[in-house]
Amino acid sequence: MTLPQIGITQRVERVPAYGERRDCLDQAWGNLLSQLGMLPVPLSNALNDPGTVVDALELSGVILSGGNDIATQPDAINPAPERDALEAKLIDACFTRGIPVLGICRGMQMLNLHLGGKLTATGGHSGERHLIKRTHADAPWEAEFEVNSFHNFAVGANDLAPDLEPMAIAHDETVEACRHKQYACIGIMWHPEREAPATERDMKLLSDFFLRTAD
Questions:
Q1: Which of 114, 125, 151, 191 is labelled catalytic?
Q2: Which of 4, 76, 102, 137 could pair covalently with 69 via S-S, beta carbons 3.0-4.6 A apart?
Q3: Of 209, 35, 188, which is closest to residue 106 (Cα–Cα)?
Q4: For the chain, which domains are there?
Q5: For 121-125, what is the mean pLDDT?
Q6: The pTM is what?
């Protein structure tokens, strides 16, 4: 049996002692996707043409993972312009090929910016847990639920890209989840991999999105 391969982008960490910029990925992602019968494939930020890699590996989906503020944002923490460039090309490559894209936290921010939306600096969303509310009756979760939160930039109520629609909002009306109006593309601001154990809600979201979308 061949496992569905899910490409996943990586954060960039600067290591001055070695003069290196290293790609890295939380091992929790490997554990989570393996539980769901998927094979995680870390993607290098040094790829010039991610479309060729998507084709060669026959990826069933792509996750834009968290970490690194986007370099164009004021006061960005640990920015990685090379990652921004890679993910922009990767989004376009996946849309062209009909490959599902799931943006996690920074990943949703990247989707929104790349598609013409905006971000705003926010407080009370880093290292906190809070309730969010579903905005679409057909969104794949309950009307209100609690999520983790680790971001300093958010998508304001009026800052969502034209091709995206909200699926859930926080108490301050910032967008916590969205989807593309045309392509198989979802963004969420919480981290499924940082729940121990993973929630049934997130497991179902990942499984339904990548496995059923690919059918």
A1: 191
A2: 76
A3: 188
A4: 5-114+177-214 (3.40.50.880)
A5: 77
A6: 0.95
